[in-house]
Each structure stands twice: as structure tokens, then as C-alpha cells.
Amino acid sequence: MEETSTIDIKSINEKIEKESAFVDLLTLEMNKVIVGQKHMVERLLIGLLGQGHILLEGVPGLAKTLAINTLSKAIDASFSRIQFTPDLLPADVVGTLIYNIKENDFSIKKGPIFANFVLADEINRAPAKVQSALLEAMQEKQVTIGDETFILDKPFLVMATQNPVEQEGTYPLPEAQVDRFMLKTVIDYPKLDEEQLIVRANLKGAYEKVNPVVSIKQILSAQEAVREVYMDEKIEKYILDIIFATRYPDKYRLADLKPLISFGASPRGSINLAIAAKCYAFIKRRGYVIPEDVRAVVHDVLRHRIGITYEAEAENVTSEDIINKIINEIEVP
User: Which residues, 6+ apart, have CB-to-CB distance to 87 below 8 Å?
Assistant: First the structure.
């Protein structure tokens, strides 16, 4: 029995190695334009392969828009950008019915959501109605205009950016909406030498041209292949222990966290942590998941899924600190 399982893992490994060959090509192509920000580029690929969506948080000017635009060019996919403002309407996102006088009938004008890659810029500046219109598209991968429903093209990736909540004119997103994002990635300023390269490239004014190096067909095939990455039962148990420790910390020798957590991660957290770990293994060109894969993505998957109490805020404890404590306490398989 053991022999067949090793043969199976071997064949899965070979398949994944073949399927993931494009990852290096794609990363190289993106690095022509994006300096540093390796973490962000990796997370974009995880979101794309895991058929999820990404929330990027960082101050303006950190190449968030440039990153997703470059990714869509390297894949030869359609890209659209929606600038969220307080006066935006749902129709500005999904589209609307327009009355045609000549034909005495209504025709449908599709909105910018109809693209493979959608950048929802500064999502936390828009009213709730607009956010909920975007939500249907993200969750159901479909859009309803009038009485017609349209299925969105595949792949479909929403990358929303938000400025840190303390900034003027920003509103925190509701928990239920934030939960729809597979990953929340926090971006920091570039390092000094990286910023020097950014300044030089801008002063030259000549950006390298990004060429399409991967087809949409390859991406769709990779999305299927990611599901085949082998995950041992011990790793599944490890993921569930991490999630359950956010809900019942006292059962995991973490009773001191109980007053700091207002709510733990939902089952969506467990699903996304498992998928993200498989995607990470795929990017590393491996056909099986190891505990390091889970640890590599756990912060991005859980930082927006753990509610912190006023007590935690008073003590300056963030959801990151809570995740770190849980990771350090839970036994690695």
C-alpha cells in the first residue's frame, strides 16, 4: 500500500513540476517593471492560482496598481480599474440598462467588472451599496443587470487596494465582506537600494515592455493542477488546529488570548488556508504540501479573519501578534 502512495506522490510531483514551469517566466516578466515587492507578486500568483481575491493594504504609491496591470499584460488577459469614491454607484461597477430611442428598447452596457483582472482601487472609500455589488461578482463569479445574469470570464481576480483605515476619508470594510478575500497582504515601503532603482527607472522614463509569456489556457490548467497537490492528513489537522485555536484558544494552552479575540476565523479561513498552502507548494514547484507552506501563507489568510477586542487594542495587540502566538504554540507535524 505504501509503495503505491509513494508512486502516486512521485507522479503528482512530476506533473506539478511540468505544470508550474511558467511561474518563473511570469515572475521574471513582472520583475522587469516591479522592483522588489517579491511578497506581493507571490501573493498575486497565489490568489490567481487559488481562484481567490486579494486585498492589499498600504499607503499610496507602492506600485499596487502597477503590479496587477503588469500581471494582466504578462498573461495577455483583460484588465480594468475602478477608482472607488464616495459618490460611486453600483451601476458604475457592474453596468446598467440604457434606453435606446431609435430601437425604443433598453440595451445593456457592461461595466468595468467584465474583465479577467479587476483593480478595485481604494475600496474603503466607497459606499456600502457599491461594495455589495462588487461582492456578488466576487463570490458568485456572475453579475445581474436588469433581469439578465452574466457569467464572468475565467480567470477572474479582484485585487482591491485600501489605504490604512486611520487615513482621512476611509471607512473600515464590514467583516463579512473582508472575509470574501482569500488573502489580505500588507505592503511596506521598499528598501533603500530598491527605491534607488525605482527612482532611476522613473528618471529614465523608459519602462521595459512587458510581453505576454503565459496564455489564459495555461492559467486555467494550472488552477486545476493546484487542486491535485497532495496534502497529508497531518497537514489538514495542523491547519484545523490553527483555525480552532483562533476560536477556542483555551483548548490549546492559549487561555491568555481569550480576552483578546472577539471572533475567530470562519470555515472559509480553513478552506483558504488549505488552498493557499497548495498554491504556495505549486509556486515552489512541489507536488505536496509541507508545514512551511502553511506557515508561509498563514498571516495573509488569517490577518483579516480574526476580530480583536477593545482590550487587545488597549494593549496594542494586533491580529498579527495573535497569529504569531498561535503558530508558536501549535505543534508542527
Answer: none
